[in-house]
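Duplicate of earlier report; Tyrosine/DOPA decarboxylase 3 input re-posted below.
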Amino acid sequence: MGSVAPEALLPLDPETFAAESREVVDFLDGYYRNVERYPVRSDVEPGRLRALLPKAAPKNGEPMDAILEDVQRHIVPGLTHWQSPNFFAYYPGNASTAGFAGEMLSAGLNVVPFTWAASPAATELEGIVVDWMAKLVGLPERFLFSGGGGGVLHGSTCEAVVCTLAAARDRALSRLDGHEGILRLVVYASDQSHSTFQKGARIVGIPPSNFRVIPTSVASGYGLTGDGVRDAVEADIASGLVPLYLCATVGTTGLGAVDSVRDLGEVARCYRMWLHVDAAYGGSALICPEFKDCFDGIEFADSVSMNPHKWFLTNMDCCCLWVASPAALTSALSSNPEYLNNVTEKSATEVVDYKDWQMALSRPFRAMKLWVVLRRYGAVGMRAYIRRHVDMARWFEQQLEGDERFEVVVPRRFSLVTFRLRPRHKGDDAAEALSRKVLMAINSSGRAFMTHFIVDNKFVIRMAVGGAMTEMRHVRDAWELVQEKTREVGIPLGVTKKHAL
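Output:
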């Protein structure tokens, strides 16, 4: 295999670009055609790749076919295959042909739209697509640019949370005497909320002792309700603390629980707290009218986020963040160095500079891929896609309910099913241990990948349906695999009734 001579290096030569891009597309075509042949979860030992690759970068460049050969030989065996149709772990990380095309356009154009002037069309397209998405999921007019709000595309919910916490912090501090008031600010979330809220609170300077984890219970489906928050807030106020920020979640990480947005919104308004609604997972389903009740009370929110890269066919990474008051966000995040002030005569009121809506200055052209997905599949196609996964998960839940060996821990939310082996009596530790063994056996088989959660000291297996390549046959195979591994750990067949899709 020949190397690339330094004097011949033309990094963006159109002919080379076309030829090598075709090689990559052909490689990925083969990967997707064969992805079911790979164990879903890699079982390689730590350090494998470091032992295989050279200890330093090559002196001279190498041809693309040699690089792709090493990807196939060294990289692919060490991957957990998120796009496998048998991937049911965590939450989906969707990819699609349209998402890939949008990503190629974004990467190929390679603009950096941190200000309007840095790429006017990229900035304006972002404003258009976040408004489109806001209308699809049913957000009120106040979150649209036309209604005085607006949206931005971040890389993840983690970024969105830090930015909204900073905005809430500065808004609250403007009412207090001096920056030392930060020591009095309190953040509230449930025991089911994503851990990023605790991390985000630390990043913006909230003392860890001022983060309140409010317990939930099976009575509310592990959703957060207003009563528990109100009690905690009243206790903090009595201690001289200041309620700052409240998180409501639509589709929690562990169980898919849905918090009572209206109840929490009324509490937030009563105590002048910032209400953020985290719909990272569940937000995609809200394009379907049958799930709109999950956003009941959304008019109380100050900010809302959801991740199209989870369940909306948009390749990583892409997180929509909407705010009712862009000024609250930009006043906490804006910076205006001189080298960015001399490129346009447009007034600040006429354009959006997205550098002031995020932590970083640089940013990719994420709007392109979301726009291509929306254009390519449309609202009707996306609703059918979401509903197909919900139907598959419903079928899986019905099989569990019809088998006396299993217990559905909480009723299915969206396309997430949570289950465990049914204890034979109260305090049956054997059932917990066997549930762990069943999950380990499923994942060790390479035929599927699921993850677990702990709630009320119960070990829970999570089956998250949502892969772009997942069909009903894969869900049926997963059910057969669960039954097979359950028998292998010593629990015989125990079906009481059967359901059909």
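DSSP finds 14 helices and eleven strands in the chain.

Merging into the original ticket.
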